[in-house]
C-alpha cells in the first residue's frame, strides 16, 4: 500500500476536521467563503486519496488471489511429480517419467511425457501402432517414441515395454 496516499488521505481529513472545528466556533460560518472553499478542497482531496487507496487495495487483492492460485497449482504439481521417476524407454533410451510402484495406488504402470513434465503438465504417453512399429505418443505436445515392432509372422511384440 502506498504510504504517500495514506498520508494524503489523513492530511486531507485532518484539514477538513480542523476547518469544521474552527467554523463551529464562529457565527460567520455561512459568510466565510474562504473557509468553505478550503473545506471543500480538503474533502475532495481526502475523497480522491480514499478512492486511490480503494483502487490500489482492489489491485493488490486481485494480485494476492492470483499468487495464491499459482501456489496451489505449484503445490498440486509438486505432489503429482513426486510420484514419477525419470527413466529411459527401450530400445532407444528416450527419456520419460515412470509412475513409481510405491505411489501407484492401483493405477496401471504408465509413463508421462518428459517434455510436458518440464512444463509442469502431466500427460500420459499412449501406446499406438503404425504398421509393424509400436510407439508411445503424447497427445498434449505430439512427442512420440519408437518402443518396438510387431513381427508380421507371429504377431508377437518385439517391444521391450
Ligand atoms: Zn508431451
The general outline is rod-shaped
Cα-based radius of gyration, to the nearest Å: 34 Å
Helices, by number, come to: 3
Give me the side-by-side strand order of the main sheet: 1-2-3
Strand content: 15-25%
Question: What gap, in angstroms, lies between the N and C termini?
Answer: 58 Å
Main structural class? alpha+beta
Tell me the series of helices and strands, N- to C-terminal. Answer: HHEEEHEEE
The major beta sheet can be summarized as: 3 strands, antiparallel
Percent helix range: 40-55%
* Quaternary structure of the protein: single chain
| Low-confidence residue ranges | 152-160
Instruction: Name the average pLDDT.
Output: 84
Give a short overview.
This protein has 161 residues and is of the alpha+beta class.
Structure description:
The protein is α+β, with helices and mostly antiparallel strands and 161 residues long. It folds into 2 domains: 72 residues; 68 residues, no CATH class. Helices cover 47% and strands 19% of the residues. It contains 3 helices and 6 strands; from the N terminus they run ααβββαβββ. The strands form 2 sheets. A 3-stranded antiparallel beta sheet has the order 1-2-3. Strands 4-5-6 form a 3-stranded antiparallel beta sheet, with no helix packed on it. Strand 1 and strand 2 form a beta hairpin. Helix 1 packs antiparallel against helix 2. The radius of gyration is 34 Å and the shape is rod-shaped. The C terminus is likely disordered.
